[in-house]
Predict the structure.
Amino acid sequence: MHVVVPELEQLAAQAEVCRDCRLCEERTTVVFGTGDPRADVMIVGEGPGREEDLQGIPFVGRSGKLLDQLLGEIGLERRDVYIANVVKCRPPGNRDPRPDEIDACKHYLREQIQIIDPTVVVTLGNFSTKLLLREQRGITKLRGVAYAWWKRVLVPTFHPAAALRGGQRVLEQMRDDMELIRQVVAGEVDPYAGSEEAGSEEAAEPEPVEHVPVEAEQASLF
Ligand code: SF4
């Protein structure tokens, strides 16, 4: 059954007409996000590509097929998760989103996370991982760990496009990260418990913050 969450619908309607950065100029559609608005797992990519821009749905091309396949391998279907991007409009020619564009758009993602309230946030690739973890290091260094993140768990992995370009090795690392996601969802890995499985000290960064008032979280999340 399709669940309607009014706050999320309102936010989507706001994004639909957004002209807060130059990416509005060449977009066909605003790709706000899709999936279960009450999902335990929320996936955050970079920005819409050509197909996504045309269809208004994230991850519909080859990357999307691979993502569906990898989710399927850990028993998740697309309808079980919520998928969104750091920027909601397509950067022309599939260039990287620029810092001012990410700054202009990130409040939508922040509010999506707060409304959906997932247990696990999965970042795909450098842009979403660095933004949410407030990190300068790249995805190659950051992946493979479940991070305690604002009372949730954040698991970074490669963008599926990197696996399509990078071949078997990247794909296998993504599979390892997917297995980590499965373990977190199943409660077998908990970075807040400081267990060995959670990846020891490294997994405890950034520090979990308890009892954060919503306003404080809104200001600080990323
Ligand atoms: S990318 Fe984000 S901030 Fe820029 S116009 Fe689209 S919705 Fe607005």
Notes: The domain at 6-190 is CATH 3.40.470.10 (Uracil-DNA Glycosylase, subunit E).
